[in-house]
Specification:
By secondary structure, the chain is mostly helical. It contains eleven helices and two strands, in the order ααααβααααβααα.
């Protein structure tokens, strides 16, 4: 499949204008020169990859913090606002367009990613059940209410997390050190970011880094679409929640309750399915062909290519 390069366009940075004779002004208090100098340094920082990554991360995180736990459709509205913030930062600070958030083909990309995410979770849960790790029972919940809440919350979480980790962090680090280094760094950081979750330990952090960081990062490098990777992330989390399986240590209301039996390496223990060896291996099995396809389609950038 073809990919759309998300490499920023090269645009010259603003530089202070020289005086007609190539010498600085020697009159006045020197405030103009100081202001220009500061503006130039600030501009260079903001337009650099780490600069726009941090500016974008602050903006998206702020929107997420205000809307993630809101009632009804508030998390979805927050996700839309976060996309708008991301586009604005990329246009103004990174000085590039955002084909990864293009509306054209967004629905198809989200459905494809969603299908992969749903299949990934259902197959993993089925295998754990067949090995005796899970048993399910109906929770007797109000189906429409539970599904509505899960969908709203998980759309908000999936979109904002993918903007932070893949659209901002992965692409910024990719410009500096290439795709492979960016994938490794963002995957490790994704695992570290989940260490504060209930039931988390060193293994669950590593498991999240390998399966979630690796699979979601590979999915983004392959398709270069935030909708594809957010669709995958959304169905992953939503399917877990509705099955009653803890989502990264958290146990929101689902349609089923799950009883856990046996080794934590099989079941994931109190952290949930994501700390099980089965989805870790399944995710790696999905990520490898995605990375191969990304490489064949020119989506994997070396350090030198990423800088241009």
């Amino acid at each position: 499949m073809g990919t759309t390069s998300a490499t920023p366009h090269d645009t010259p940075h603003d530089t202070p204008h020289d005086t007609p004779h190539g010498t600085p002004h020697e009159t006045g208090s020197g405030l103009d020169e100081d202001r220009d100098g500061r503006g130039g340094r600030f501009g260079r920082i903001v337009h650099a990859p780490l600069g726009w990554m941090l500016v974008g991360a602050v903006g998206v995180a702020l929107v997420s913090g205000l809307t993630a736990t809101g009632p009804g459709p508030v998390p979805v509205l927050g996700a839309a606002a976060a996309v708008a913030v991301y586009r604005s930062v990329m246009h103004r600070a990174a000085r590039r367009s955002t084909p990864e958030t293009a509306r054209r083909g967004a629905g198809r990309a989200a459905l494809l990613g969603g299908g992969i995410g749903l299949g990934f979770i259902l197959v993993s849960a089925l295998l754990i059940t067949l090995f005796g790790g899970y048993s399910f029972s109906w929770a007797g919940s109000d189906v429409l209410s539970v599904v509505w809440t899960a969908v709203m919350v998980q759309i908000g979480a999936a979109v904002t997390e993918e903007l932070l980790f893949r659209a901002l962090a992965l692409q910024a680090l990719e410009q500096l050190w290439g795709s492979r280094a960016a994938l490794v760094i963002t995957s490790l950081f994704f695992g570290v970011a989940h260490l504060g979750a209930p039931g988390a330990n060193a293994w669950s952090g590593l498991a999240i880094a390998l399966e979630a960081g690796g699979l979601l990062g590979a999915a983004f490098l392959w398709r270069r679409s935030i909708w594809f990777v957010a669709g995958l992330h959304f169905t992953w989390n939503t399917a877990e929640q509705l099955l009653g399986i803890p989502v990264s240590g958290h146990t929101p209301e689902g349609l089923f309750t799950v009883d856990v039996h046996g080794s934590a390496l099989l079941t994931g223990g109190s952290f949930g399915l994501e700390a099980s060896m089965i989805p870790v291996l399944s995710a790696l099995a999905l990520a490898v062909p995605m990375l191969v396809l990304a490489h064949r389609n020119g989506g994997m950038k070396t350090r030198r290519r990423a800088g241009h």
